[in-house]
Design brief:
- The protein is mainly alpha-helical and 438 residues long.
- It has two domains: 166 residues, Hypothetical protein af1432; 142 residues, no CATH class.
- The protein is built from 17 helices and no strands.
- It is globular and about 65 Å long.
- The termini are far apart.
Length: 438
C-alpha cells in the first residue's frame, strides 16, 4: 500500500486552503510540497551558521545545525519508510526540528529563556512552531496576516516534539545533548500561537482528564529518535577525528558518571559495562587508535553507519512486535528498547566526558550569553529603528511591553552566530572580545 493512502484528507489539510498548482507542473503530494517549503525556507539556510556543539566558524569539519538536520532527516526518512509511514512527513519534521534554535545553540536558548520571562518564556521547539506558522513568510490569510509556510496538519503535528504549553510542562532537569544544562522547561507552543496549535492537534487523543492530550504522533517520535541517534554517533565521530576520543581506550567509570549525570540516572556501572561490550561486538568497532588516514576515516564511517543501522533496526523490530499498525499518526507508538536507549546514552556520555566538559568551552558560553543579553537590551531600547522590517512591523502592532519583548526575542532568535556578533558590534559600541564575527 502507498503510505500516502494511510493518511486522511484532514491530515493533508492546510490552515489556509490553496488552489491547485498549474496543470503542467510536476505532480507532488501535499507532504512532498511541505518538505520543499522547509528546504527552501530562509530559516533553513541560517542553520548553516548556527552552533551545533561548537561554533561553525571554529573548524571546516565541524557539524553545524544544518548538516546535523540533514543527517537527522536521512535517519528519520529511512526509519519512517521501514515502518510503512509517509517518509516525507518524518523527513520534513527532522529538517525543521532545529529551525527555532537561536544563535549559540542551547546556550543561547538558555539566555533567551531567562530574559523572556515577562512574555511567556522561550523554547527552541516552540520557536520552531512560531517560525513554521507565523514568522517564515510564504502564505497569508484573508486578512493579510502571515500563516508561515502553511504546512499540512500532519506535518505540523510531526514537527511538535513537546505538544503542550509552558504551564503544562514538567519541571526542568538534566542537560541537552550538547551538554548545556536545561535551564527552562520544555514546551512546544507560546500562548499567542495556541489557535494554530489547537487546529493541527485536532484528532489527537485526549488526556486522562478529557482535556488536551500530550501524546506525540508516531512521526514526531521518529523525528525525536532520529535526533538522538544522529547526536550520539556523530558527536563521537567528530571527537575521534579531532583526536579527543580513542574508542579503544575508554574510561568507563568516568563516562558512566556523565551518563548518570546527564542522561540515565539509574544506569549502574555493571549495566554500562555490558552495554559497552555489546557495542564493541559490532564488527566495525575499532581495535586500534584512529590514525587520520583515508583507511581510518573509511573505517570510522563504516562504524557510524553500522551503529545507526543497529539502533534503527532494533527500534523497528520492537515497534513491529509491539503493535499491528498501521504505523502512522496515532495508530501506534514507536518502541525504543531499553538496551538501545542505553547504547545511545553511552555514546552521548563518551562525547560528554571527552569533548564537552572543558573549561575553555564553558568560558566561551558565558561570553556568548553576555553578548545576547546586551543585544536584547539595546533592541528593546531602540525598537523599530534598528529591527528588520518584518519585526519592526510586529513591534508597531504589539499591544504592550510583553508583546514588544516577544518581537525582540523573535528578532534575536532569527540571527546566526556571526550576525549576532555583528549586530552587537554595530549596536553595542564595539565587538565583543574573543567572539569571531564569522
Amino acid at each position: 500500500m502507498d503510505p500516502h493512502d494511510l493518511y486522511s484528507a484532514a491530515d493533508a489539510e492546510r490552515l489556509v486552503p490553496e488552489p491547485p498548482k498549474r496543470v503542467d507542473a510536476p505532480v507532488r503530494t501535499p507532504f512532498e510540497r511541505d518538505r520543499a517549503r522547509v528546504v527552501h525556507a530562509a530559516s533553513s539556510r541560517r542553520l548553516a551558521a548556527k552552533t551545533q556543539v561548537v561554533g561553525p566558524a571554529s573548524d571546516d569539519f565541524v557539524r553545524n545545525r544544518l548538516t546535523h538536520s540533514l543527517e537527522v532527516a536521512q535517519v528519520a526518512r529511512d526509519l519512517s519508510r521501514a515502518l510503512g509511514s509517509q517518509p516525507d512527513i518524518a523527513e520534513t519534521a527532522a529538517l525543521a526540528h532545529d529551525l527555532g534554535h537561536p544563535p549559540f545553540g542551547h546556550n543561547g536558548e538558555q539566555l533567551l529563556a531567562s530574559v523572556s520571562e515577562p512574555c511567556g518564556g522561550f523554547e527552541g521547539n516552540a520557536q520552531t512552531l512560531r517560525l513554521l506558522t507565523r514568522l517564515e513568510a510564504k502564505t497569508v490569510d484573508a486578512e493579510g496576516r502571515s500563516v508561515g509556510l502553511n504546512l499540512t496538519r500532519a506535518t505540523l503535528d510531526a514537527c511538535t516534539k513537546y505538544p503542550w504549553e509552558r504551564a503544562d510542562a514538567e519541571p526542568a532537569g538534566g542537560v541537552h545533548a550538547d551538554g548545556t544544562p536545561r535551564g527552562g522547561v520544555k514546551f512546544g507552543v507560546y500562548p499567542d500561537d495556541v489557535p494554530v496549535f489547537a487546529w493541527f492537534r485536532t484528532g489527537s487523543p485526549a488526556g486522562p482528564d478529557g482535556g488536551p492530550g500530550r501524546r506525540r504522533c508516531l512521526e514526531a517520535q521518529v523525528m525525536d529518535l532520529a535526533d538522538d541517534v544522529a547526536y550520539s554517533v556523530h558527536d563521537v565521530e567528530d571527537g575521534v577525528v579531532a583526536g579527543k576520543i580513542d574508542l579503544t581506550r575508554l574510561d568507563l567509570a568516568a563516562v558512566g558518571e556523565s551518563v548518570r549525570a546527564w542522561y540515565v540516572p539509574d544506569a549502574d556501572d555493571d549495566t554500562l559495562a555490558e552495554v559497552l561490550a555489546g557495542l564493541r561486538a559490532v564488527g566495525s568497532w575499532p581495535t586500534r587508535a584512529h590514525d587520520g588516514s583515508r583507511a581510518g576515516l573509511a573505517a570510522l564511517k563504516n562504524l557510524t553507519s553500522d551503529l545507526i543501522g543497529r539502533f534503527c533496526g532494533d527500534v523497528q523490530a520492537a515497534t513491529f512486535a509491539g503493535a499491528q499498525g498501521p504505523f502512522v499518526r496515532y495508530a501506534a507508538d514507536l518502541v525504543v528498547p531499553r538496551t538501545t536507549l542505553l547504547e545511545i546514552s553511552l555514546l552521548k556520555g563518551v562525547a560528554a566526558h571527552y569533548v564537552m566538559q572543558t573549561d575553555e568551552r564553558l568560558s566561551l558560553m558565558e561570553r556568548q550569553r553576555d553578548l545576547l543579553a546586551g543585544l536584547v537590551d539595546v533592541l528593546l531600547a531602540r525598537g523599530p529603528e534598528v529591527l528588520d522590517r518584518p519585526f519592526a512591523d510586529d513591534w508597531r502592532e504589539a499591544a504592550d511591553d510583553a508583546g514588544r519583548l516577544r518581537v525582540v526575542v523573535d528578532q534575536v532568535a532569527s540571527l546566526t552566530d556571526a550576525s549576532a556578533v555583528a549586530w552587537h558590534a554595530r549596536l553595542c559600541a564595539g565587538a565583543h572580545p574573543d567572539l569571531p564575527a564569522g
